[in-house]
Amino acid sequence: MTSSAGEALMNRVQGKVAIVTGGGLGIGRAAALRLAEEGASVAILDIDDEAGRAVVSEITAAGGQSGFWHVDTTDEDAVRNAYAEIAERFGGIHVVVNNAGIAGVNKPTDEISREEWEALFDVNVTGVFLCTKHAIGYMRTAGSGSIINLSSIYGLIGAADLPPYHASKGAVRLMAKNDALLYARENIRVNSIHPAYIWTPLVENLGKQHPEGVEAFRQLLDSKHPIGHVGEPDDIAWGVVYLASDESKFVTGTELIIDGGYTAQ
């Protein structure tokens, strides 16, 4: 590979300013690192200050541009103010990765309280709404934009568990489609990504609660995927890079399913 080709491969989102919510850990962290590696200035939004700042340090140590903002995505004023500061610091907003989310309670629907239902929807749906709402003006100014909603395979299929989570991820999927139609004429693209099980700190912590231990839990998850193993955060992060880049300029209102064959069964 020539040096010029190598350089081109490292500049897939050169000059873009990307916001990653929940960017401190797991898929968000991986997405932030890969976007920075490919030339974007990356703003990390998270409520975990230590994790968020660690990602910024990792990006800047490698020569990239990054900053951290402590933002609860359900707080509209916090979102609005952070966006204004990000645009001022980096010169605009071109990409928003709506990654922040929680799993919520795992109970049958008839046992879930309204408070438990609304707490999850506040993060997983209202947070995505607010982070999309306040991005549009900046993307209009830029003349283009890409909004990437992290949904799930459970925004496509059921699994007889986590009712609020499934409902929220279905909502995020349809929000992407509807917003894609609303803003297509303004060259603002909106898509959703649908991961299967990804080995993140959150999933590993679930494994620690498994009666047979973490390794047995991972083997159980591996067996659910036709490809034979769970995914890694980078498997999703490279999908984010694609949707953030001009390589996907004709892609809007669709689902990018990254699931090792899970939903093909």
Radius of gyration: 18 Å
- Tell me the helix content: 40-55%
The biggest beta sheet is recorded as: 7 strands, parallel
Beta-strand percentage range:
5-15%
Query: How does the helix and strand content classify structurally?
Result: alpha/beta
Topology, number of strands:
7
What string, H for helix and E for strand, traces the elements in order?
HEHEHEHEHEHEHHHE
Average pLDDT confidence is 94
State the strand order across the main sheet: 3-2-1-4-5-6-7
Number of helices: 9
Poorly predicted parts: 1-7
Q: How would you sum up the global shape?
A: globular
Distance between the termini: 39 Å
How is this fold's topology laid out?
Blueprint: H1 3-9, E1 17-21, H2 26-37, E2 41-46, H3 49-61, E3 66-70, H4 76-90, E4 95-98, H5 114-142, E5 145-150, H6 163-183, E6 188-195, H7 201-208, H8 214-223, H9 233-244, E7 255-258
Parallel strand pairs: 1-2, 1-4, 2-3, 4-5, 5-6, 6-7
Helix pairs in contact: 2-3, 2-9, 4-5, 5-6, 7-8
